[in-house]
Each structure stands twice: as structure tokens, then as C-alpha cells.
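Per your request, structure below.
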């Protein structure tokens, strides 16, 4: 009996070593130890693939289920997604990720949600009964029903579908994703003048996530997480296409980006989740000056609530036409904007007082500079 258990333990150890070796593309030199006081941001594409990897380990319809490494994971009964993802992240980012980091992130996110929970009871009607708001907007929640239907639901472009398929293949195949697998992926879409590397560009195709990891650890699932990161990516590259270099620091392009991403998040997830992602997590990680934070929060609400139906119109799938609707709204500064003479040095109480007097249907911006 003892010999049998020793043999079993040896097999698990051997498989574990094979898994660790599979994540590197080449041997390197000294690896710096991670700073255990930091909660670092990580590439959203990697987080998505690792979350889907975990799901594939337990899904007998996918090739990864039958890999010896997957069997080793299943033999570790009760292994959570948090534990699996953290071990894989420590393999991929040994200089950044440390044991217990994901638990810290999750606790920080939950604590932040608790602090902001009173905002869910606002009297403005933004968070009205979900069934009523869905009925009025025609946006009934759409659950994941397979990759092909997901691509149709999000009306993925050819470029987006190509990225989606490549990432899913990484997660579902018998092998386990390595950093060089991500680095080889390049996104090209002439419609938006888009030519971006998945990881190596200074502004990657998918943004990095920090507190957003908590969404996965709360059980949102990889498919819903992908809707989130795809929405953010769209808002980034469409805003940059419409306002080259002008989608930051209080500019009109920044207003466009926040209105549009909140629209997308509401359409593909829910109004409440859009609030959590953009009003709570985004602002917490961004460490914005008061003028930027208040501007963002005001414009977020316009996109996901106050003018959502007007921007979306009758078409529930054409996200490109939604972008055009938001663009026309932003460009009509006479009718739709409320310019503020703010700067990054003004205190929060002054900024908030000015925002309270602004028309709730007008977007805010404070920087008229041209890039």
C-alpha cells in the first residue's frame, strides 16, 4: 500500500513538473522576486485563457480534458479557479505574481464593493428593476450558448473573431498556454487603423486587469469576462480612431470612450455590472484626479443609463452604428456638452458642486487641448 501511494505521488510530481516546463518558451537567467506588497495589473488576454483553461480541464468536450496534466489537476480534489489561476500566473509571471495575491485582489474588490453598495440604492432610477429596464430596452440577458453564438451575439468583426478563436484554441487544446503563444498574436483591422500586438505593444489590444480578476473569482465565468474585456478593447480602439491621441486627460475623446464602453458593457453584461466595472473598479485602479474622476462617473451614467436607449436605437447588435451615434452626440458641443473650467489641482468638493449643477443629459469635459 505504501509503495502504491509513493508511486501515485511520483506520477503527480512528474506531471506537475511537465506542466511547469510547458509554460516557458526558452530558459532565462535570474528572475527577480515579486514585490509581495503590490497588487499588480495583468494582461486580460492571459487571465481569460487561464480561466477558460480551468473550465476546459473539467469539460470532456474539449481536448484539454484528456491531457495528463489535466487529470493531475482533477486529482487535486477541490482545486479552485483561484488556486489554479494563481499557480499558472506564478509560472508565467514569476517576477510579478506571488502566492496569495489573487486572494488579496479578491478581498480588496469585495471590500470596495461593500463601501459603494449604498450607491445601488440611488433615487435617480439608474438601477431600476432589472426586468422592467430589460423589457423597455429589449436587452434581455443573453447567456453563453457556445463560441459561435457568442460571436454572433457580439457581432464580432473578422479581426475580433480571429483573436477570439486563437485564444480559445490556446485554452482548449491539449497543451498549456505559454507567454510566447500570446506574443505571437497580432490584431489587424483596417476599419479602425488597428495593428496591435496582443502583449508587446505599449498599449496592448486588451487592457490589463487588476480588480477585475475578482469577477472571475466570484464565478462570472470566462465567457462573461471576455465580453467585458472585448467591450473595453472596442472602446479603446474606436475612441483612438475617432480621436487620435485625444481620448485622455479630460478631452472629448475621453468622454466618448467612457460613454461608449458603458453602453457596450450594459448591452453585453448588465447595468449593474457596468457600474461595478467602470464606477468602482476602474476609478479605484486609475487613481484619477478629482476632475477626471467626476467627469468619468458623470459620463459613465450617460452611456449605461440616461441615454443608453437613444444611442443603441432599434438595432441591438450593430455596435459600429452605436459608436456613430455616440460620436454625433459628442461632436454636437452646442447642444450636448457642458464644458468645465477644471484642472487637476482643484479639490473634490469644488468639482462635485459644479457637476451637481450640470445638465445630467450633457456630457462633461474640461480639456479643450488638441492632440
Amino acid at each position: 500500500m505504501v509503495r502504491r501511494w509513493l508511486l501515485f505521488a511520483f506520477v503527480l510530481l512528474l506531471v506537475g513538473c511537465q506542466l511547469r516546463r510547458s509554460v516557458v518558451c526558452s530558459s532565462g537567467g535570474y528572475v527577480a522576486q515579486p514585490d509581495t506588497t503590490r497588487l499588480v495589473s495583468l494582461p486580460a488576454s492571459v487571465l481569460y485563457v487561464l480561466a477558460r483553461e480551468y473550465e476546459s480541464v473539467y469539460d470532456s468536450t474539449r481536448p484539454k480534458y484528456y491531457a495528463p496534466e489535466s487529470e493531475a489537476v482533477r486529482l487535486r480534489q477541490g482545486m479552485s479557479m483561484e488556486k489554479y489561476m494563481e499557480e499558472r500566473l506564478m509560472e508565467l509571471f514569476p517576477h510579478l505574481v506571488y502566492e496569495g495575491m489573487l486572494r488579496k485582489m479578491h478581498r480588496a474588490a469585495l471590500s470596495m464593493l461593500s463601501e459603494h453598495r449604498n450607491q445601488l440604492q440611488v433615487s435617480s432610477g439608474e438601477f431600476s428593476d432589472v426586468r422592467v429596464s430589460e423589457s423597455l430596452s429589449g436587452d434581455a440577458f443573453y447567456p453563453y450558448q457556445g463560441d459561435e453564438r457568442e460571436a454572433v451575439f457580439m457581432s464580432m468583426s473578422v479581426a475580433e473573431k480571429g483573436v477570439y478563436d486563437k485564444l480559445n484554441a490556446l485554452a482548449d487544446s491539449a497543451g498549456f498556454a505559454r507567454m510566447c503563444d500570446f506574443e505571437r498574436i497580432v490584431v489587424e483591422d483596417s476599419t479602425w487603423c488597428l495593428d496591435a500586438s496582443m502583449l508587446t505593444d505599449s498599449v496592448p489590444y486588451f487592457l490589463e486587469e487588476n480588480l477585475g480578476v475578482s469577477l472571475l473569482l466570484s464565478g462570472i465565468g470566462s465567457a462573461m469576462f471576455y465580453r467585458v474585456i472585448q467591450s473595453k478593447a472596442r472602446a479603446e480602439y474606436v475612441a483612438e480612431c475617432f480621436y487620435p491621441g485625444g481620448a485622455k486627460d479630460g478631452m472629448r475623446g475621453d468622454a466618448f470612450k467612457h460613454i461608449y464602453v458603458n453602453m457596450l458593457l450594459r448591452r453585453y453584461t448588465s447595468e449593474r455590472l457596468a457600474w461595478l466595472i467602470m464606477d468602482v473598479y476602474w476609478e479605484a485602479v486609475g487613481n484619477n484626479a478629482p476632475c477626471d474622476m467626476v467627469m468619468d462617473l458623470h459620463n459613465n451614467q450617460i452611456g449605461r443609463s440616461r441615454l443608453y436607449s437613444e444611442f443603441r436605437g432599434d438595432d441591438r447588435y450593430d455596435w459600429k452604428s452605436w459608436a456613430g451615434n455616440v460620436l454625433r452626440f459628442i461632436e454636437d458641443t452646442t447642444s450636448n456638452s457642458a464644458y468645465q473650467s477644471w484642472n487637476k489641482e482643484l479639490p473634490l468638493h469644488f468639482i462635485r458642486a459644479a457637476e451637481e449643477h450640470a445638465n445630467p443629459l450633457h456630457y462633461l469635459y474640461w480639456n479643450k487641448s488638441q492632440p
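The chain is about 55% helix and 5% strand.

Regards,
D.
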